[in-house]
Amino acid sequence: MSTLPACPQCQSEFVYADGPLLICPECAHEWPAQATEAVDAEETRIIKDAVGNLLQDGDSVTVIKDLKIKGSSQVVKVGTKVRNIRLIDGDHDIDCKIDGIGNMQLKSEFVKKA
């Protein structure tokens, strides 16, 4: 059997691949095959805080360790609350804005969900 997804418009099972596109013969809908793979990869991305709580975009977190800022004499102190985080790919998986410091990227292992 085919491992191709069903058509997003008519839910037909008779989808076929034509180069980089997936095509439904029943409704003639075409969509890129990579878009389906990107959605699957995004859904499997799980980021947890230091305690093991699941983090999502828009959450508030608290810093659990003093963090020195590279190239600066400033420090993010323990207990600093960070609101409205955004999850990103990479080593530092949280993108946020900290009051008094500005835009930063943090590692999830140094925060806990507030």
UniProtKB/TrEMBL annotation:
Listed InterPro entries: YjdM, YjdM_C, YjdM_N
Pfam families from the UniProt entry: YjdM, Zn_Ribbon_YjdM
Keywords associated with the record: Hydrolase
Boundaries of every Protein YjdM N-terminal domain copy: 3-32
Superkingdom as given in the UniProt entry: Bacteria
Domain Protein YjdM C-terminal as annotated: residue spans: 47-114
GO MF entry, a single one: hydrolase activity
Keyword Transport (UniProt): no
NCBIfam families: phnA (TIGR00686)
Family to which the UniProt record says this protein belongs: Belongs to the YjdM family.
Name assigned to this protein: Phosphonoacetate hydrolase
Organism: Lampropedia hyalina DSM 16112
Biological classification of the source: Bacteria, Pseudomonadati, Pseudomonadota, Betaproteobacteria, Burkholderiales
